[in-house]
């Protein structure tokens, strides 16, 4: 019903604009071509590209267009509104912008019918990629025609990296190949799985389970494994046991900015391997596949705990929260990972994941907290369950979590190191109260990836990960169709109040780039730490013509999107020296 239409029938739409002189060079700016510029590809150019990639060029359609004139359709609009918060609706679109803050209400199903449906930040065309040839052709076309190029799988992205106005998108969603292999190298010998660029988390889990193994992946069923998730580091409920998703990477298959197909391992194109393994997506090349280590399947125990603020005794609530954080080192030392959501009146541990541990082990780990709740309150509910394997556990306790849904939210985050839990627990408690009193939701992921048993060699994940006890995700939410001014106010609260409450506590750590504030000051240091300078050198080596751009990605600090949506790059700037100041 909502699939993208084949391009040929719609090509002429982009040429209704009056032709004008290209403005690629303005002062010290080099700007990408957009419709209306003489340098924008002609109809024949697009036809020839479509022929080169065997008819795989598509023009995206706006999912919510059916909720606005002149395309209004009541029944279809009701369907879109009903399932708008379901990731699957957006996953199968070549262009839908899942993050409301990025979409900017340009075509929202909950705004009034009479409001025009605008393209907004969505891409202009997409290449429905099936292989390296399709990808290389798209890169070559974008480079030669000097147009913006973006990379998209599912659109699970809150920084706007998988979309862009006037852009050509390489859409990898249908590259679903999965292969179980025995991998042999000087760095790793053992079971592995090769995942195509379009494989999503649940698909990977099911495939690994079929062979009696576990692959480290995320919580959300529909997130793409191979793109921004793993390339950004990728936390998992299995991370205290096996490390981050990026720590599992054995081999990458990637097309770089010059169109070359490369294999990247710790010994072949090792710099590209290092960069892709945690240095952020969308900027070094387009990944076709990754080979990941597998681990033997095992039973998993889960615990779900909830307690609420008693307004008559608020100190009991805050004391119980502190007691939980006191237990975090013990939880993670046992290979566990906890997801604890906090507001100013609710604590929800949903869930605590304990791989290869029993119900008895779970009760023993939580005993100090349970004892305090029994004697001091507040009232609580606790459920502990055993599961025979990882997939069964994940499908029953993690997959049903409401965080799987698309949400209208401004996100932020910061990492809390183990030293804070050990030496400054009172300051952490105060910071949490400041955050939740400001209206931000605090979600603390308790994990320890310092051992990183899955890691073959050093990689480019933010170094602060190795010292982290809590990776904190913050959010402020607004209702569907809310006033954009209110969204801006909430964004201000995130950037000026909620994130700083944690960054003051641990100024030398940083934030997980995939779940961070898009307005994060000093993002180079916050997201990449001391790795930024080296990553920038690798970016320049493999993408010398600046084909790839993504907001807040390595190399993006010399680029910006102007008011028309055109991507421009600053010339004659000493980017190296300014970037390395983050080291």
Oligomer: single chain
> Could you name the CATH topology of the largest domain?
Vanillyl-alcohol Oxidase, Chain A, domain 3
> Which whole number gives the mean pLDDT?
91
CATH class of the largest domain: Alpha Beta
Overall tally of domains: 4
Q: Tell me the overall shape.
A: globular
Instruction: Provide the structure class.
Output: alpha+beta
Helical content (DSSP H or I, runs of 4+): 25-40%
Q: Give the neighbour order of strands across the main sheet.
A: 18-15-17-16-20-21-19
GO molecular function, one term: FAD binding
Keywords: Oxidoreductase, Signal
Signal peptide: 1-23
Protein name: Isoamyl alcohol oxidase
Question: What can you tell me about this protein's structure?
Answer:
By secondary structure, this protein is an alpha+beta fold. It has four domains: 5-171, no CATH class; 178-296, Uridine Diphospho-n-acetylenolpyruvylglucosamine Reductase, domain 3 (2-Layer Sandwich), CATH 3.30.465; 300-527, 3-Layer(aba) Sandwich (Vanillyl-alcohol Oxidase, Chain A, domain 3); 528-580, no CATH class. The chain contains 18 helices and 23 strands. Strands 18-15-17-16-20-21-19 form a seven-stranded antiparallel β-sheet. Strand 2 (25-26) and strand 3 (29-31) form a beta hairpin. Helix 10 (314-333) packs antiparallel against helix 11 (359-376). The N and C termini lie far apart (50 Å). The model is unreliable at 1-23 and 574-583 (pLDDT under 50).
């Amino acid at each position: 019903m909502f699939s993208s239409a084949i391009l040929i029938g719609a090509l002429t739409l982009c040429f209704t604009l009056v032709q004008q002189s290209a403005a690629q060079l303005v002062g010290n700016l080099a700007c990408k071509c957009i419709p209306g510029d003489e340098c924008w590809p002609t109809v024949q150019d697009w036809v020839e590209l479509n022929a080169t990639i065997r008819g795989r060029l598509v023009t995206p359609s706006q999912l919510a267009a059916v909720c606005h004139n002149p395309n209004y359709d009541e029944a279809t609009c009701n369907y879109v509104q009903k399932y708008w918060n379901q990731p699957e609706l957006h996953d199968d679109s070549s262009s839908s912008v899942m993050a409301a803050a990025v979409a900017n209400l340009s075509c929202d199903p909950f705004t009034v019918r009479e409001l025009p449906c605008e393209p907004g930040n969505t891409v202009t065309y997409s290449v429905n990629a099936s292989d390296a040839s399709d990808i290389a052709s798209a890169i070559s076309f974008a480079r030669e025609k000097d147009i913006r190029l973006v990379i998209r799988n599912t659109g699970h992205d809150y920084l706007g990296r998988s979309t862009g106005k006037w852009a050509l998108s390489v859409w990898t969603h249908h590259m679903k190949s999965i292969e179980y292999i025995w991998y042999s190298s000087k760095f790793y010998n053992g079971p592995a799985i090769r995942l195509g660029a379009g494989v999503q988390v649940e698909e990977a889990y099911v495939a690994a389970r079929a062979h009696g193994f576990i692959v480290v992946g995320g919580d959300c069923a529909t997130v793409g494994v191979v793109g921004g998730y793993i390339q950004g580091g990728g936390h998992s409920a299995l991370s205290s046991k096996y490390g981050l998703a990026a720590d599992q990477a054995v081999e990458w298959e990637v097309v770089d900015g010059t169109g070359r197909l490369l294999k990247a391992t710790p010994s072949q194109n090792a710099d590209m391997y290092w960069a892709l393994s945690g240095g952020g997506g969308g900027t070094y090349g387009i990944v076709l596949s990754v080979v990941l280590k597998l681990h033997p399947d095992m039973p998993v125990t889960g615990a779900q705990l909830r307690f609420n603020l008693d307004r008559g005794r608020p100190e009991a609530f805050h004391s119980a929260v502190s007691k939980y954080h006191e237990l975090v080192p013990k939880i993670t030392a046992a290979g566990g990972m906890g997801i604890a959501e906090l507001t100013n009146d609710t604590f929800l541990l949903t869930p605590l994941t304990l791989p290869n541990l029993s119900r008895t082990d779970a009760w023993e780990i939580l005993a100090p907290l349970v004892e305090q709740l029994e004697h001091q309150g507040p009232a609580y509910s606790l459920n502990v369950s055993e599961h025979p394997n990882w997939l069964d556990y994940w499908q029953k306790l993690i997959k049903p979590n409401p965080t799987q849904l698309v949400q209208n939210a401004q996100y932020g985050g910061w990492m809390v190191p183990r030293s804070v839990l050990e030496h400054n627990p009172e300051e952490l408690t105060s910071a949490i109260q400041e955050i939740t009193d400001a209206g931000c939701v605090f979600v603390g992921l308790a994990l320890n990836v310092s051992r990183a048993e899955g890691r073959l060699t050093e990689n480019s994940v933010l170094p602060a990960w190795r010292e982290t006890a809590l990776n904190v995700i913050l959010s402020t939410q607004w209702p569907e169709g809310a006033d954009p001014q209110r969204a801006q106010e909430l964004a201000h609260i995130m950037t000026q109040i909620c994130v700083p409450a944690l960054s003051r506590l641990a100024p030398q750590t940083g934030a997980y780039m995939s779940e961070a504030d898009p307005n994060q000051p000093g993002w180079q240091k916050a997201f990449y730490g001391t790795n930024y300078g080296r990553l920038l050198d690798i970016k320049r080596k493999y993408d010398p013509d600046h084909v790839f751009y993504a907001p807040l990605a390595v190399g993006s600090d010399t680029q910006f999107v102007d008011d028309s949506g055109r991507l421009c790059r600053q010339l004659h700037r000493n980017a190296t020296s300014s970037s390395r100041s983050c080291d």
